[in-house]
Amino acid sequence: RQRQMCIRDRISTEFGYNKLHIEHDGISVIDADCRDHICMSQGKVSKAGVPIVCLPHKLTVEIEGGDIDA
Q1: Does residue 23 contact residue 6 with C-beta atoms inside 8 Å?
Q2: How far is CA 69 from the centre of its chain?
Q3: pTM of the entire structure?
Q4: E strands, 1-70, where?
Q5: Tell me: the pLDDT tens digits for 49-69?
Q6: Contacts 24+ apart (CB under 8 A), 64-69
Q7: Cα–Cα dist 64/47, whole Å
């Protein structure tokens, strides 16, 4: 059985923080201190060119290159 990699990373700026959950099959925002939490409700992204955006924090997360194969 292959072990799956999972990374949690917190991005903090002067505008606030976003906590990312990075897996072999996609990336998502799992916590943020913005007031609307739209970045969290976008769910997991696994296709190149599909961004996760947090406007209050001026943050864009996007997969570069090809899509992630699950």
Answers
A1: yes
A2: 17
A3: 0.82
A4: 6-13, 16-23, 26-32, 52-54, 59-61
A5: 999 999 999 999 999 886 666
A6: 68/24, 68/25, 68/26, 69/25
A7: 9
